[in-house]
Structure formats: structure tokens, C-alpha cells
């Protein structure tokens, strides 16, 4: 059961961290409204799951909403700050987070909610490991997400333009790539990743105003893996989830929230750019 908990939590952490990375790679902006996006998407998923019993349909609706919201926030709030200090955009994301948190309190009153998942059964695996259907679905969705993102970056025109923008935005612009358009799409995908993570959090755990603690751990995952490395979120998430769960189970549960930051300090002392990040990102980190 402990191994299953670690793997599932690592998958959710990786998915949450990927939202930070996707947005940062394209726009060089840290989105500090990420936790509130997860919360809002989770509450929306709860409401839609009641109105639309079919989980896949409610999930698709949440992903579409998050994608449009991400592109809208970039187009309306972030893009007009082009040419100004990056710090201005980062502070603006903090303000957006406060606003979204207020929406969550006003509409859903900040209550703890669980997304209903109709099909629930258990599977026994070698090594006395038991996984529920929800845990299987979570691992399958996370794996599918990373596979799709890998194919997207490698084989699609927009994905290749995102890679070019991340590596050298000036040269990409000179080659005719619309940096603003690519950044807007990246913000949409990053928000959609947050929405997907919120759905998985809702069916495995619960949605509440305290969900920000998990999102903070996911930000640490992005830092440890490398802010410009989507692949780096995977080993970083497993490291954080394993040490956190082992500490809670066999040591002091109160240390659980501190573990991600302890691991982050240990890693960044030796590799300031993260496990799989590039050294060129050091100045930005």
C-alpha cells in the first residue's frame, strides 16, 4: 500500500510540476497562481461530476476551461507586460492567485470536496501490492500525458516552435515564429496540466483551500527537476513523494511538509540548475 501511495502521489506531483515547467519554458515566467488554478479546476470538476455523471466528459470540460483560462490570462494580463521586468509579471500572477482563491471561497465556500468516481475495484500485483481502479487510472493518465507531450514537442509544428522559442526566443522570432502566440498556447497547456492534476487529486484525495500545500511541493519538484526540463519532473516527483511518505509513515508526520524543501536545498547546493535542467538556466533560477 505504501508503494502504491508513493507512485500515485509522485505521478500527481510530476503532473503539477509539469505545469510550471511548460509555462516557464515558453515565457520565462513563474506562475505563482498555479495552486489556485488547481483548486479552482478541482472545484469545477466536482460540480461538473455531479451534473455530468460520465467522468471523461467532465474531465474534458475542465481541461478545455483551463486551457482557455490560461490563454486568456496570458493575452489579457501577461502579454501587455512584455518589455517590462519579469518580476512585474510574476507579481501579477500572485494577484491572480489571490483573486481565484476568493472565487473558490465565494462560490464553493472553501469546503472539502471529493470528485465521485463510479468504477472502483482492486487489483493484486506481485509483491503483495494492491492497486485500486482509481490508482490505475491515475497512473495511466499521467503516463499518457507525458507520452502525448513528448510526441507533441517532437512531431508537431507548434511543439517544435515551442522548443525553438525555449532555446532561443530572439532567433525564433527572426525565423517568423510568433513568440506571443506560442507563449499563449504554452500557458493554456500549463493550465490544462494543472486542471488534469486537480481532477486526479479530487478522485484520489480531496479538493480544498489547503490544496496549495501540494502545489507548493509541486513547485519544488519543478525546481529540483529543472525549470526547463519536463522530463526532470518525473525523477524529482518520485524523490519528493518517496521521502515524504516514508517520513510520514516511519518518522514524524509533522516533518512531511518540510521534506520537499530539505530535498530541494540538498539538490540545488550541488546542481543549482536542477537534475535535468541546463546550466544556462542558472542565472534565471
From TrEMBL:
- How does it sit in the bilayer? Multi-pass membrane protein
Looking up Pfam families in the UniProt record yields: BPD_transp_2
Which keywords accompany this UniProt record?
Answer: Amino-acid transport, Cell membrane, Membrane, Transmembrane, Transmembrane helix, Transport
GO process terms (BP): amino acid transport
**Primary site of residence:** membrane
Tell me where in or outside the cell this protein is found: Cell membrane
Any one annotated GO CC term: plasma membrane
What highest taxon heads this organism's lineage? Answer: Bacteria
Record protein name field:
Branched-chain amino acid ABC transporter permease
Concerning its family, UniProt says:
Belongs to the binding-protein-dependent transport system permease family. LivHM subfamily.
What are the transmembrane regions? 6-24, 31-52, 58-77, 84-109, 129-153, 185-208, 214-243, 255-276
GO MF terms, alphabetically ordered: transmembrane transporter activity
